[in-house]
Specification:
homodimer, 319 residues, alpha+beta, 60s Ribosomal Protein L30, Chain: A, Phosphoribosyl-aminoimidazole Synthetase, Chain A, domain 2, 2 domains, 7-stranded mixed sheet, 23% strand, globular
Chain lengths: 319, 319
């Protein structure tokens, strides 16, 4: 049973869709009347982060992952709550200082405020982050239309290569190791996009589980499919070099998640405004495919113009 | 280092007290401008609940514990978010059905709505509950005045005896075992009090860690102390009988926490209205002591009119 089935089978019915509140079928909770947006996520050592050797970086990663959920919906986060479970080894004075310093840096960078939480004793290290923002409206899932363009912000894949470096599955020089592991720990969340997305996006989600897994989620209640063009999926120059030098395949690097870029759909009429906003903010927003009727199967056109299918679409929470 | 020191030393400064938002020195977060009240708590197997043999009851306990934080502030909860970490053994289909059924019963009883959350894989079972309510104002900590009366709702100690029964440290007949373990799992949260508290309480908190520990928290930034009268501290007739039969001492049962009753202070001028509201709602609200200047030490007058001091004031989260 995956997370989606678990929610659908056991919890969906507990969340009646009222006139003002979303049910569980989106990344965030939104109460339109109260203008309240809430996201809750749990991060566990060995699962969502490898270990706690670098508490300062782990904390940055989980805060950014949490607020990314809200930002990709076109909303700026305001408050966050952190509930940490750990023991004497994980919550040493030195680590607490690092955690506190990192939180302070993230607060200044994203203009958010620690507003509460909990600390409990456990030999298993985990954090639950609740992020809250306020907005008159949000960008939903499942609002894409046939022939909408599919866009992604920034670059994909750097974070996954960073993870492979941290796991010692790929060996790079010091400079590149640092570059990619930093991309893994500190995704460059595009908070400046929050206020602009509503001007063009018909639907949006952030990429946490992987491009394809999150694209599936974005249209999961719709009778739609997608066609992506591998050539157009943006990757960094550093990643390009590594793929070339190590003869690795691009397709294996662009859908493994932890990118925290915004994945969105927009009508073709919005191409102009998207170019202008991308240029104004200095944020890359790349057209990577198109939404189509699901009489056509979802597909990816590879670098040789052949249609490819993937076995593993990304990270799925299994029970 | 206890939880209080941990917050003070490392996290207090991250939570600037703005004109509209509380800092970390209260049980709930309150944004007066947005009228938003938030409480976040984590519950871990072996710590906050013994085990998961009765998932239906554990879920009820943690939901009630979470909304109790908001209700004791004079606010009705509206939404809750549940983030569960577990594995295939804890999240079996049978357990998920029990969890879902329990949540549904709690939703109907307290008029709250599941609004989101997260499910992650972990061999350590834990839940984080975020509860949200809306209010123009809340009842704060640290607003008690000298000579204010101290009150508590309901009875204390039943839950602790229930825990001892579940731990097989006290043996009772089947009927009484059931009575006390139910008090442990399903504290009778006084949601009807939420709308009335603001009419008389000068400060309030819910009793989760224990009467004395929570009373200390209620006045922790004030130069105040308290005098309690053991004789007046309310316990159930069932507990009275057990204490008598087993020759157990009352003092050992009234401050071990998990009571989830409302502990509050009120000016002496409010005695009339408190009696009337207590009678109207059919909820016991008992005067158990008085707030005094801290030139006098906090004390408890025992059943023989002698002053007693306690070593262990209740549960404290240590790291």
């Amino acid at each position: 049973m995956n997370e989606f089935e678990l929610i659908k089978n056991y919890f969906q019915k507990l969340s009646k869709k009222t006139s003002c509140a979303l049910n569980l079928n989106d990344d965030v909770f939104f109460d339109k009347k109260k203008k309240l947006v809430v996201s809750v996520d749990t991060y566990i050592e060995g699962n969502h982060f490898l270990n706690f050797n670098k508490p300062d970086l782990v904390i940055k990663k989980i805060i950014r992952s949490s607020i990314s959920d809200i930002i990709c919906k076109g909303v700026k986060p305001k408050y966050y709550f952190i509930s940490g479970s750990g023991n004497k080894k994980t919550f040493t004075k030195s680590n607490l200082l690092k955690i506190s310093k990192s939180l302070n840096e993230e607060q200044n960078r994203y203009n958010i405020l620690l507003s509460g939480g909990d600390t409990v004793f456990s030999n298993k290290l985990s954090f639950t982050i609740t992020s809250i923002g306020f907005a008159n409206d949000i960008i939903y899932r499942n609002k894409a239309k046939i022939n909408d363009d599919i866009y992604v912000s920034g670059n994909l894949g750097d974070s996954y290569l960073g993870l492979l470096v941290l796991k010692k599955k790929v060996k790079l020089n010091k400079l590149l190791s640092k570059y990619f592991s930093n991309k893994y720990f500190m995704p460059n969340i595009k908070i400046e996009l929050a206020d602009e997305l509503k001007n063009f996006a018909s639907s949006s989600i952030d990429i946490s589980d992987g491009l394809l897994a999150d694209l599936d989620k974005l249209i999961n209640s719709q009778k739609l499919s997608y066609k992506l063009n591998l050539k157009n999926i943006p990757i960094s120059n550093n990643l390009k070099k590594i793929l070339k030098n190590k003869k690795l395949s691009k397709i294996n690097f662009i859908s493994n998640g932890d990118d925290y870029q915004v994945l969105l759909t927009a009508p073709q009429s919005k191409r102009g405004i998207i170019k202008r906003i991308s240029s104004k903010l200095g944020i890359k927003i790349t057209k990577i495919g198109i939404i189509q009727n699901n009489s056509l199967k979802s597909s990816i056109i590879d670098l040789n113009n052949a249609v490819i299918t993937l076995k593993n679409k990304g990270y799925s929470h299994k029970f």
